[in-house]
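#struct-pred

JT: dropping the chains for the assembly here, can someone run the whole complex?
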Amino acid sequence: MGYAHAFDPEDAAAIIDELKHLEGPLLPILHAFQARYGHVSEAAIQLIAGGLNLSRAEVYGVVSFYHDFHEAPHGRHVLKVCRAESCQAAGGDAIAASIEDALGIKFGETSSDGQVTLEAVYCLGLCAASPSAMLDGRLVARLTEAKVSALVEEVRL
Amino acid sequence: MTRVFIPLDSFAVACGADEIADDLTRIAAERKLEIEIVRTGSRGMAWLEPLVEVETPNGRIGYGPVEPGEVEALVKAGLLDGAEHEKHIGRPDEHPFIKAQTRLVFRRCGITDPLSLGDYRAHDGLKGLERAIALGPAGIIAEVTESGLRGRGGAGFPTGIKWKTVADAPGAKKYIVANADEGDSGTFADRMIMEGDPFALIEGMAIAGVATGADKGFVYLRSEYPQAIRIMQAAIEAARKEGVLGATVLGSAHAFDMEVRVGAGAYVCGEETSLLESLEGKRGQVRAKPPLPAHQGLFGKPTVINNVISLVSVPFILAEGGAAYKEFGVGRSRGTIPLQIAGNVKHSGLYETAFGLTLGEIVDQIGGGTRSGRPVRAVQVGGPLGAYFPRALFDTPFDYEAFAAKGGLIGHAGIVVFDDTVDMLKQAHFAFEFCAVESCGKCTPCRVGAVRGRETLEKVMAGERVEASLTLVEDLCNTMKFGSLCALGGFTPYPVMSALEHFREDFEPAPMREAAE
Ligand SMILES: Cc1cc2nc3c(=O)[nH]c(=O)nc-3n(C[C@H](O)[C@H](O)[C@H](O)COP(=O)(O)O)c2cc1C
Ligand code: SF4
Ligand code: FES
Ligand code: FES
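RK: done, full complex below.
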């Protein structure tokens, strides 16, 4: 993950062709688009709707429903920080605040240089090693100020 | 050749297990040490992860928690011979946390290589499926019904009855769906078993397929679990290659195949009908019931949808008999339950035991109290929709009915411990906030009630019209409880009202709270 590919209709059509035989193909296709292009654009929605014989509104409705799909490109890195109860109980609120401070952005925002998007996530299943986070699909648990600094360093690169 | 076991479970990996494995490989090459690294699941002693074990003439000896960077020192200190060290914990299977458990579902987890079907067979794997094929549908359903197994996803519905309904439903096409959305905060049992013993889920689903006549299964696995997704997919491929899945399951006349489908970050998609909508490629909105999924489920076909732990309980029940499973437990809560002890707690992790321990035994004795060393003040049981229990309710036995009687629920058995620095007004506010963020938007009490509840508690935080605001919160909770279509809106009142009832002092106007301190 990290650097997304630019959207390319031919490449995108190949993804649709590869997955459309699945039972219920829409979510797998959207996941594939999100992973490859970093977002699901208007053009992508149009292409998918055509490929699956759905209306654009139907596809748009699905894209907008799920937290994992983004209509606009996100940062080069995505840092998801758990804000749920077990992490709260283990000092996660302070860790979350220090991440916001260090990155200079709030949850839901992307840094102005496009390096990182900061997202809240509700439980990563690491609750017996709280607080936890996920950077571009890599899990990090038992977060401390030192681990936060290392993560922040990493996303700045 | 010395075998070294390093978990690949997310707990361990998120604390550096991959780096540890790399370091050990490098050090072994440099020093020409004959070692074999086996990646396993987790034993569940999460506070000791990464827990590295080495095979010695005296059995497996554990070291933990190992930090990345200290492998060299550990090897020098004699890790490969099981030598004494500050991180030496002796034999994990003799550890009091493990020894006192009743591990039926998690008996292989942390011990075997999760992707080795040979290991799986050598440790009693596939015995349940073999017997299931011999028994046939009616016999399987009789065993599951006899076991008293109730759904571990939260609602506690008898699994045998659900399977019988699908078995009896007319139609050639039926589905088995494993609910691996595990959205409840404080829970990780589904994740641990999928990472540590994925063939057990495959076996459970195949048994469900044989019992009901379904030939296709889906594991709806949340996207927040990248490691579980990888391992589950690899296990399905291996099972296919070895004829456990496919046109003739273990050479029988039954066909069953399955695939993993990845969720997309919506809590409500753990609700069974919303999950089915999502699998079909739609917005994850809750369906009105009836029809039940057992009659009209995925793509309108009869569908068994069960939690992962319900399904992985089945191989034991089939191998050993429903009566053997039923021996464990209390009242109408039969068998074992994997407790997930989390939050601010010393001995955090997964503890499988028969139903019936008290909440106090779980938190104070097994969990060892808080990690911070401060007093335990509140415990949330059953995820974000579960009630907060004060110490005064610590004598409540872990049992579906006993928790309901005290205004709570056991849900998926997540137990989150808070010390005395917790602000229960903030926790109640979070419960509304979570509901507002995750609402599917289908019904008004949930969609609007959650937002109004959050705003009203913000007034309480600001000390505005506190009494009137709290009365409004109670009204909102009543409306949500009785007017919501599903338990997201319907159960959000549990954390809110339990906080209000048991920790009222946190809701008093600020000056009074300060005076009380
Ligand atoms: C908002 C909401 C979220 C739920 N999340 C889950 C979940 O993540 N995993 C799960 O197994 N059940 C979840 N459930 C319960 C399911 O609707 C359903 O009862 C369960 O999958 C049935 O399986 P079981 O009988 O094996 O428990 C949820 C219910 C609601 C209302
Ligand atoms: S209670 Fe909430 S989540 Fe459940 S159906 Fe209604 S709006 Fe959707
Ligand atoms: S609550 Fe944060 S990982 Fe589960
Ligand atoms: S779709 Fe989320 S509230 Fe409308």
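JT: nice. The interface with chain B takes residues 23-28, 30-31, 61-62, 65-69, 80, 84-91, 121-130, 132, 134, 137, 139-142 of chain A (CB under 8 Å). The CA atoms of residues 22 and 67 of chain A lie 23 Å apart.
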